[in-house]
């Protein structure tokens, strides 16, 4: 093999002019038939450590670099390697180099020779390189190989644990005893550097070299201490064992490190108490109260409120303005301007419908839409349950928590094939459009015909709050159901008595429906809730029945409606007339700071349903400019019709006092640019009042 070291031939020392001198101990060359031990051989040797001076080998007793050598009886002589030699040494015979400081070339590991009392050992650690053959050492001194039972132990002490290697490295790095004369041959230039002579052992005659017998049995191995191992012990299997051991050690270290980190964390951050898991705290006792922002807030005076509102109320943009301001903590009227005069409330009338719903309906009640088995095989009937919020397209709805048409279709599909679809609208009676409602309001997005079955409040675009609505919401919804169920278009019909229910979906709870109708001022949803109040109170589920039910519930709860006159529940009709005081009376009960009035607990959700100035609902884009001080502090329901604008709600003044107000304006001025901003300034003036 090209990479194998070139051993000297039989005539390497022939003709060497070596004069007898100090005897040197020469390690015999191996025979090609002898068993070998393979180990790495460094290409170069490292410079000696400055702390530890390099010592000469006890194997060659002649000083290094002395240009002459001697041989024992029967042994070849070692020349100095002069200029005539093959390695650039001095003339006088072939030499394989002497060990000493190099002449500028780096060295791997220094050769350390330490004399001992009983034996002398040459220690040499050689990094991975070419391999060499090692045969018997001379019997002149007890050597490392001659110590029975210590060969393997010494190897374990001197040879580092095998490390994982890259795939291209096929031979593991090993540390073995090396023939000194071979190192001299590898580095002839080192023979020129003199070394400090060290004490040398007494030379002994080397026995005559004999023909090495071929190995027949493992017992005849010339190297002791390895009789139990096979010749090919240096294979790729050993690194695998080393890797397993290494991985085991690393795993053990990781476990120890984690354990130490845990102990450190426990000690560092409070010991065992720091990791004790405490039981969860008891649920908070929540009571819906409206309290002053500042404890002990001073009560405003009528004179102070009047002074704060004098300027804003006199704005020419408002035209004729009526209103009322009340302190709900004590019921004191702080400001009155035509508060009992009948005026058009527009959508602020929804405050009355919402209050009647909270006072008469259970907050957790839901509106149910069902599909039942029809009279004919394969036919089904959709029974409208008064829920206008059913979502026709999942993920696109202006009503939070709405049920979906797809959910209803999937339930019915599981019961069998459907060949005919009908829809039952008998839950409601009377006209579908309210008094004085205009057809133009349907296309304008204000309203749709009030029927007990529809999708998305009758909207064409499900996600557009103010988008156009359809004039036939029930038919459109039933056709959408039939298309998805795989049946022809739907027709109107009545459900058989006690028919089997094939599917059912439910709306959000009434409390959430009230909140939604107030936030986006939805007229269709408000009229549906008015009809539910009518059904609950035994009235006709129509416009007339809904109005009567609202009046009856509010009157029963102590509110004066003797002068109020309205024909719908949403305030869309321009003929509706109520006094501002009625609105502030209802809001004052809802805003009382205590719950001693049983009506207050039921009406409390009315306050949170009001849009927030500059934050939500119909007030999200308002309260800018001179009214900006009211942003976040004013909560109110808006009302808008042609020539009519209203604002009614609550506000917290700078002293931390809650005030209730209602303002209604009749003006022909620009509503968006003049009238509404003027109403916002009035409410913001109450916020900055400090009117004690």
From TrEMBL:
Biased composition (Basic and acidic residues): 168-184, 197-218
Origin: domain of life: Bacteria
Region named Disordered: 1-238
Transmembrane segments: 245-266
Compositional bias annotation for Low complexity: 147-160, 185-195
InterPro entries: Beta-lactam/transpept-like, Peptidase_S13
Keyword Coiled coil: no
Name this protein carries in UniProt: D-alanyl-D-alanine carboxypeptidase/D-alanyl-D-alanine-endopeptidase
Species, as recorded: Lentzea miocenica
Name of encoding gene: dacB
């Amino acid at each position: 093999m090209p990479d194998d070291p070139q051993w000297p031939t039989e005539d390497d020392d022939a003709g060497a002019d070596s004069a007898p001198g100090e005897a040197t101990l020469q390690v015999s060359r191996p025979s090609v038939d002898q068993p070998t031990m393979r180990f790495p051989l460094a290409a170069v040797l490292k410079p000696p450590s400055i702390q530890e001076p390099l010592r000469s080998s006890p194997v060659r007793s002649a000083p290094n670099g002395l240009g002459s050598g001697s041989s024992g009886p029967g042994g070849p002589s070692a020349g100095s390697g002069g200029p005539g030699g093959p390695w650039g040494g001095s003339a006088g015979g072939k030499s394989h180099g002497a060990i000493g400081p190099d002449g500028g070339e780096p060295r791997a590991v220094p050769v350390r020779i330490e004399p001992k009392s009983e034996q002398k050992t040459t220690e040499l650690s050689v990094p991975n390189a070419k391999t060499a053959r090692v045969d018997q050492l001379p019997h002149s001194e007890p050597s490392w190989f001659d110590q029975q039972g210590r060969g393997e132990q010494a190897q374990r002490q001197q040879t580092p644990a095998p490390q994982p290697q890259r795939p291209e490295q096929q031979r593991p790095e090993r540390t073995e005893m090396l023939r000194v004369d071979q190192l001299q041959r590898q580095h002839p230039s080192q023979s020129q550097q003199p070394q400090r002579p060290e004490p040398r052992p007494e030379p002994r005659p080397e026995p005559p070299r004999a023909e090495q017998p071929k190995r027949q049995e493992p017992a005849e191995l010339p190297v002791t201490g390895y009789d139990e191992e096979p010749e090919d012990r240096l294979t790729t299997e050993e690194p695998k064992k080393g890797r397993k051991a290494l991985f085991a050690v690393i795993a053990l270290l990781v476990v120890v490190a984690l354990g130490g980190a845990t102990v450190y964390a426990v000690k560092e951050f409070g010991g065992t108490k720091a990791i004790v898991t405490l039981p969860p705290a008891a649920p908070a006792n929540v009571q819906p109260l409206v309290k002053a922002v500042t404890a002990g807030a001073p009560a405003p005076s009528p004179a102070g409120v009047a002074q704060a509102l004098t300027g804003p109320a006199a704005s020419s943009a408002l035209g004729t303005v009526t209103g009322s301001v009340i302190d709900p903590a004590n019921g004191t009227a702080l400001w009155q301007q035509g508060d009992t005069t009948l005026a058009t409330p527009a959508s602020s009338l929804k405050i009355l419908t919402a209050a009647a719903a909270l006072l008469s309906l259970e907050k957790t009640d839901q509106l149910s839409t069902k599909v039942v088995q029809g009279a004919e095989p394969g036919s089904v009937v959709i029974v409208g349950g008064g829920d206008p919020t059913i979502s026709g397209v999942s993920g696109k709805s202006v009503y939070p928590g709405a049920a979906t048409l797809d959910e209803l279709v999937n339930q019915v599909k599981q019961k069998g094939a459907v060949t005919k679809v009908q829809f039952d609208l008998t839950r409601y009676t009377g006209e579908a459009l309210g008094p004085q409602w205009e057809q133009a309001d349907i296309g304008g997005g204000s309203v749709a015909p009030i029927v007990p079955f529809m999708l998305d409040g009758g909207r064409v675009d499900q996600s557009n709050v103010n988008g156009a609505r359809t004039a036939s919401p029930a038919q459109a919804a039933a056709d959408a159901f039939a298309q998805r169920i795989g049946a022809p278009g739907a027709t109107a019909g009545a459900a058989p008595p006690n028919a089997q229910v094939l599917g059912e979906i439910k709306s959000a709870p009434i409390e959430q429906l009230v909140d939604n109708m107030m936030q986006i001022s939805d007229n269709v949803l408000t009229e549906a809730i008015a009809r539910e109040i009518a059904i609950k109170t035994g009235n006709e589920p129509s416009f007339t029945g809904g109005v009567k039910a609202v009046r009856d519930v509010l009157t029963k709860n102590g509110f004066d409606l003797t002068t109020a006159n309205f024909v719908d529940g949403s305030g869309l009709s321009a003929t509706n007339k109520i006094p501002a005081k009625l609105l502030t009376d209802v809001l004052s009960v809802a805003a009382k700071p205590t719950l001693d009035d049983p009506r207050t607990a039921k009406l409390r959700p009315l306050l949170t349903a009001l849009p927030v100035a500059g934050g939500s609902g119909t007030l999200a884009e308002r309260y800018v400019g001179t009214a900006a001080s009211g942003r976040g502090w004013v909560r109110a329901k808006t009302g808008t019709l042609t020539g009519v604008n209203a604002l009614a709600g609550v506000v917290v003044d700078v002293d931390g006092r809650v005030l209730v107000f209602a303002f209604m304006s009749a003006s022909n001025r620009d509503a968006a640019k003049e009238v509404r901003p003027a109403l916002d300034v009035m409410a913001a003036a109450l916020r900055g009042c400090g009117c004690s």
